[in-house]
């Protein structure tokens, strides 16, 4: 029967082996990450240049992309077809250079594939517009420019309800993609009414 001292020594040896194994494993992971090119670390977050029918950012200097109901920052990008509500898109571009961005709306089917309808069938006004509302950062370590866009607007109105993909690209070149965001425009076909009735007691 092993003594307490032998058991203690054996336990310490096993513990030391485990610590060494964890240390070697961490060292191997660190070396692997160090050998990976910078590009491979960002591809998880930035899609290739081909258009994606989902929320995506295509440039690594575009940050803080938000799309929500105007003046309601925590809401999803869903608005009724009729009414005064607008969606507000904002995004930041790192650096001091100002770029010219354009946008389009693409009507999609229920599975978020592009509809066969012509843009003039669901857009009243221009089917392509520039984003001309931007402001520069002030007193920040990292200079950036913030762009914003309100949809719909006086130049582009939506005439059909459905799923829409908002596509933003640079300098009027649709292949130079910047970001895409999903949004929904709905229509009220059914209204639910109700009326209050006073409770009545009936004799049993």
Folded structure, characterized:
- By secondary structure, the protein is an alpha+beta fold.
- It has helices at 4-35, 38-42; strands at 56-57, 62-69, 78-80, 87-94, 101-108, 123-125, 129-131, 133-136, 144-151, 156-158, 162-170, 177-186.
- The strands form three sheets. Strands 1, 3, 5, 7, 11 and 12 form a six-stranded mixed β-sheet that branches. Strands 2-4-9-8 form a four-stranded antiparallel β-sheet, with no helix packed on it. It has a two-stranded antiparallel ribbon with strand order 6-10.
- A hairpin with a 7-residue loop joins strand 8 (133-136) and strand 9 (144-151).
- The longest helix is centred in the N-terminal third of the chain and has 32 residues, at 4-35.
- Mean pLDDT is 81; it is low at 27-44.
Low-confidence stretches: 27-44
Proportion of residues in helical segments: 10-25%
| Structural class label | alpha+beta
Whole-Å distance between the termini?
86 Å
Strand content: 25-35%
Let me know the number of strands. Answer: 12
Topology of helices and strands:
Blueprint: H1 4-35, H2 38-42, E1 56-57, E2 62-69, E3 78-80, E4 87-94, E5 101-108, E6 123-125, E7 129-131, E8 133-136, E9 144-151, E10 156-158, E11 162-170, E12 177-186
Parallel strand pairs: 3-12
Antiparallel strand pairs: 1-12, 2-4, 4-9, 5-7, 5-11, 6-10, 8-9, 11-12
């Amino acid at each position: 029967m092993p003594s307490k001292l032998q058991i203690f020594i054996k336990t310490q040896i096993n513990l030391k082996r485990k610590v060494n194994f964890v240390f070697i494993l961490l060292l191997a992971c660190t070396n692997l990450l160090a050998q990976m090119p910078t590009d491979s670390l960002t591809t998880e977050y930035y899609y290739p240049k081909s258009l994606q029918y989902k929320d995506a950012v295509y440039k690594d200097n575009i940050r803080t992309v938000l799309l929500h109901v105007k003046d309601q920052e925590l809401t999803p990008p869903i608005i009724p077809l009729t009414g005064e509500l607008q969606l507000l898109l904002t995004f930041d571009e790192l650096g001091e250079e100002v770029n010219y961005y354009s946008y389009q709306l693409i009507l999609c089917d229920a599975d978020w594939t592009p509809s066969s309808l012509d843009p003039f069938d669901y857009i009243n006004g221009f089917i392509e517009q520039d984003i001309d509302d931007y402001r520069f950062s002030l007193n920040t370590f990292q200079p950036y420019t913030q762009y914003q866009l309100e949809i719909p607007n006086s130049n582009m109105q939506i005439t059909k309800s459905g799923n829409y993909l908002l596509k933003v690209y640079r300098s009027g070149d649709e292949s130079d993609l910047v970001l895409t965001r999903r949004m929904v425009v709905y229509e009220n076909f059914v209204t639910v009414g109700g009326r209050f009735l006073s409770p009545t007691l009936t004799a049993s």
